[in-house]
Specification:
Helices cover 69% and strands 11% of the residues. It is α+β, with helices and mostly antiparallel strands. It is elongated.
């Protein structure tokens, strides 16, 4: 009994996970598309940038050597020997670097944030393209299936019209009118088949492998009726806003780094001589060095203004983005609610069109209406069915767009 319950739970979860097939495609893209492989490289790059910042806080150790010939060597320990040499190990540790060392600690936290959110935005943008192309494909493929059924129905009706026209029960004009309608539907069929091939090709490229549609059941639009929960709160922390916040923090630190040129730098230097030029008691020396640039002809001040301008641009971009995000998302939600109303109306219209076509088919068999009337009823049924299918797929696509916009990866 427990095994049966377990199997049912697994089956139920698999259906819930793949109710429309999109999540499976996103998972395939995550594993196979080159974009996500590049994202791993971007992550590694960010890690190395953090390591580079850490290295600036540690001392530099080096080996220095020189060989001199001429006047300099004569003034050193060897006297009249024109050749001289020196080899030493040097350690340099910055004690105070104009306050830059504090910014390095902050940047160690900021750089990973920038890389993480930039990667996430690229990932969600790619998922959004898959979402759009997938539901465009679903529109076309479902319209194709429905149209094939309608063509089959029409061909069956035309055989009856042809039989009746031969015995004079109906005019040949009805048969020719039906043939014209059939050819028009076949032309539409070819056009939709081209759309299906186009979106299949787009999806092949977007997921990185051959696209195969494994969904069998039609989409239930009620699965997409509810708006994402707490979207107003989530909108304030979407990846675009997080990225801009991190970029502003980064720009603020860059201003501090440049302003560090106004301040002195203090470093500790120690040399251990393996081969010393000047005679002395010790084979080592220790010094504390101070450097303070008093005047640089506007170089530092101009660089500070450049970094401040970058900071102000980032702040302005954030304000503009927040404004556009709210407007865009409100538009999406309004469109979502209107699409639900449209689907409700189209479902009623489809039911009436089906009843009308069924009724007029009976009337035509009794000879009470012309084939032109029946043809218009079939055209109306095909059009309403197409509109309803398109609206349902638009609703599903819009629902995923709402969630992707909020930063939900969905897999």
């Amino acid at each position: 009994m427990k095994l049966i319950i377990f199997i049912l739970l697994v089956f139920w979860n698999s259906i819930a996970f793949s109710k429309d097939g999109l999540k499976d495609l996103l998972d395939l893209a995550d594993k196979n598309h080159q974009l996500f492989k590049r994202n791993q490289i971007e992550k590694l790059k960010a890690e190395k940038e953090v390591s580079l910042l850490k290295s600036k806080l540690f001392p530099e150790i080096s080996i220095l050597g020189s060989i001199d010939y001429g006047n300099k060597s004569l003034s050193e320990k060897t006297g009249l020997n024109r050749w001289d040499s020196e080899i030493k190990a040097r350690l340099v540790q910055n004690i105070y670097n104009g306050g830059r060392e504090y910014t390095y600690f902050n940047l160690k936290k900021i750089i990973p944030k920038i890389a993480k959110n930039d990667t996430l935005i690229k990932r969600l943008d790619h998922f959004a393209k898959i979402n759009t192309n997938y539901f465009q494909y679903k529109k076309s493929s479902t319209n194709l299936t429905n149209l094939k059924k309608q063509i089959g129905t029409l061909e069956k009706a035309l055989r009856e019209v042809q039989r009746r026209s031969k015995i004079g029960r109906v005019s040949k004009a009805d048969f020719y009118s039906g043939q014209s309608q059939l050819q028009r539907l076949n032309a539409n069929l070819i056009s939709i088949e081209s759309e299906v091939l186009f979106y299949q090709s787009e999806l092949d490229q977007l997921i990185g492998v051959k696209f195969v549609d494994k969904t069998l059941n039609p989409i239930n639009w009620k699965d997409y009726a509810d708006l994402p929960t707490q979207w107003e709160r989530k909108l304030k922390s979407i990846p675009q806003i997080k990225l801009l916040n991190a970029q502003i923090q980064n720009d603020q630190e860059q201003v501090k780094i440049v302003k560090g040129d106004y301040k002195p730098t203090i470093s500790l230097e120690s040399n251990a001589y393996l081969d010393k030029r000047v005679n002395g008691i010790d084979n080592y020396d220790i010094s504390i060095n101070l450097k303070w640039s008093l005047f640089s002809f506007g170089q530092t001040s101009n660089q500070v203004e450049i970094e401040r301008a970058k900071l102000n641009l980032s702040k302005a971009q954030k304000q503009e983005t927040e404004k556009n995000i709210n407007t865009f998302y409100e538009t999406l939600t309004q469109r979502h609610l209107k699409k639900i109303n449209q689907i409700t109306s189209l479902e009623k219209a489809l039911k009436m069109s089906q009843e009308s076509y069924f009724f007029q088919t009976g009337e035509y068999k009794k000879g009470l209406i012309s084939y032109m009337d029946l043809s218009r009823s079939l055209d109306d049924l095909i059009e309403v069915e197409r509109q309803l299918n398109n609206a349902i797929n638009d609703l599903a696509m819009n629902w995923y767009s709402l969630n992707l916009f909020l930063g939900e990866s969905l897999i």
